[in-house]
Structure formats: structure tokens, C-alpha cells
Amino acid sequence: MVSTKPLLNLKPLEWSEQHKPNDNVRYNHCIAHTSFGRFLITWKGWKDNVSPEAEETPWGEYYDPCADSVEEAQANCEREFARRLALCLVDVC
Q1: FRET label pair with 65: which of 3, 7, 78, 90, CA 20 to 30 Å apart?
Q2: If you write DSSP's letter for every residue of 36-59 in order, what string do you get?
Q3: pLDDT tens digits, one per residue of 5-52
């Protein structure tokens, strides 16, 4: 069983509203900004199977959040962000 408990007590990411394709992003999308860069989650809004993807991440790589909904993709991106930050910390306990 995968734990849903957050690895760190972080401020939640603030996600933009869901936007339709535009001149800058060719798919439906939402964005969250961090101090290290942004998350850009995209999906093909005209399809029944949403399959959102993180085209941009603060660590500069594509990330597949393995999600069936935009909300689930956002939550998975937040968990991955916390996991990567936790790798940088020293356990002082």
C-alpha cells in the first residue's frame, strides 16, 4: 500500500484555473509556480480519456504523474515535489 502521508509539511502549491489551449500552450493546461520553477500540467481536453502529463517541472524534466484526472495529477506532482525536496534534507533526529 502506498502512503498518502506527506513527506514534508510544505505549503500547498497554488494551481491556476484550468485553461484552454492558447498561443503559448497547445493543450488544456494548469500551472503552479514554485521557487525552483513551474509545473505545467497539460491534457487533451477534447478526449474522453484525459491522461494529464507534467510537460514542465521545477527539475526541468518531463514527469508522468500517472493520473486519471487533473486533480489527481496535481496531487501526484505535489507528492513528487515533496519527495525530491526531502532527498536534500539531512535527518537530524
Answers
A1: 90
A2: TEEEEEEE-TTSSS---EEEE-TT
A3: 555 678 899 999 999 999 999 999 999 999 999 999 999 988 888 899
